[in-house]
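Submission checklist for the structure archive. All mandatory fields must be present; incomplete records are returned to the submitter.

[x] Identifier: Lipoprotein
[x] Organism: Flammeovirga aprica JL-4
[x] Residue count: 116
[x] Sequence attached
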Amino acid sequence: MLFSSNIYAQESWDFKTDKQLHYGAGLVIGATVYTSAYSMGESPKKSFYIAMGATAFAGIAKEFMDEISYGGWSDADLGYTLLGGLTSAGSGYLVTKFIENRKRNRRIKLRRKLMI
């Protein structure tokens, strides 16, 4: 059969209250873990990966619990959780890299001034 029938209920990707909560949870987890990892001396890149890993772990664990509780695994919920983590950890990474590059450029300019 070329086309599948609509026997299975289609999952909603509409950004309603439940999806907003998953997105918000991803934001909080991503931001908290990124900030913690970076504060402990990890590089921005490694902090980003750690934050995304923690967000993915939390999202998968939540969906696994939903599946066990009532058979309600949702790819959309997991997707919104990961998107929230990506938004906050990605923003943290970009801001951190911007600040690091700005500090580095100021040091280079200062060295050049001192050499002249």
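[x] Structure attached
Curator remark: The chain has a mean pLDDT of 88. The chain has one domain: 17-115.
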